[in-house]
C-alpha cells in the first residue's frame, strides 16, 4: 500500500510534491511534531549532584517518558571508541562543556531511535550555545532534511545548595572521572557561570518549575510527581 503511494507520488509534478511535503513539515514544526507525532520534551536542569539522574529514573518508572541524559550519552560515546572519545573524555574530566554539535547529534539520534513522543532530557541545555543550537535542530523528516525547532514543554529545575551537591558527589562512588574534588569545584563554577543563565532565560519565559532538591530523594519525588500528574 505504502509502496503504491510512493509510486503514485512519483507520477506527480515534482514542485507539487515538494510543496505538499514542505506544507506538512511546516505544520509539524508549528506543532512540535516529529514524524507525525506531537513530541513532548522536558528539560531537567540543576547543578552537578542535585539529583537529576535519580529523579529521572523515578519519573520513567511512573510516567511514560524516555529518559535521555546528555552526560550518559557522552560517556557512552567515549566508551564506544568513537573518534571524538578522547576529546570528550578530556573535556568531561576538566568539568567543561562539550561542543554543542557533538551533544546535539547524540540527542537527535537518541530521540529518533527512541521512537517515543515523550522525553525528559537531563543535563541539557548546559549553556546558551546548547540552547540556541538545539532550537534549530535538523531532523530527517519526509525524505528530506528540514530545519525543525523543538521547544520544551517546561524546564524542571532542581535547586540545591553547593555544599549538599558537593557532599553527594563525593559520596556517589560510581567511578566517574569527574567525581573528584578538583573537577567538582570546576563543574560547580561552570554551572553558575554557564548553566544558570539558561535557567534564568527559561524563567523569564515563565517555563521553569523549581523543585527544592535539598530534601531527601523520596520527598523530592513527591514534588516531581505532583508536576507530572498534573501535566495535560
Ligand atoms: N535528594 C537526595 N538526597 C540525598 N542524596 C541524593 C538525593 N538525590 C540524589 N542523591 C544522591 O546524590 C548523588 C548524585 O545524584 P544524581 O546522580 O542523581 O545527581 P545528578 O544531578 O544526576 O548529578 P550529575 O550532574 O553529576 O550527573 C547520588 O549518589 C544519589 O544517590
Ligand atoms: N549538555 C551537556 C551535558 C554534559 N556535558 C558534559 O558531561 C559532564 C557530565 O554530565 P552530567 O549531566 O552527567 O553531570 C558534564 O560535566 C560536562 O562535562 C556537556 O558537555 N554538555
Ligand atoms: Mg546525572
TrEMBL record:
Keyword ATP-binding listed? The answer is yes
Which SUPFAM superfamilies does UniProt cross-reference here?
A: P-loop containing nucleoside triphosphate hydrolases
For this protein, what is the EC number? 2.7.4.14
Q: Which PROSITE patterns does this entry report, sorted A to Z?
A: ADENYLATE_KINASE (PS00113)
Which reactions does this protein catalyse? dCMP + ATP = dCDP + ADP; CMP + ATP = CDP + ADP; UMP + ATP = UDP + ADP
Q: From the record, what ranges are coiled-coil?
A: none
Residue sites binding CMP per the record: 130
A Pfam family reported for this protein in Swiss-Prot or TrEMBL: ADK
| Comment field on protein domains | Consists of three domains, a large central CORE domain and two small peripheral domains, NMPbind and LID, which undergo movements during catalysis. The LID domain closes over the site of phosphoryl transfer upon ATP binding. Assembling and dissambling the active center during each catalytic cycle provides an effective means to prevent ATP hydrolysis.
Q: Which PANTHER family match?
A: NUCLEOTIDE KINASE
Q: Identify its protein family.
A: Belongs to the adenylate kinase family. UMP-CMP kinase subfamily.
Q: What is this protein called?
A: UMP-CMP kinase
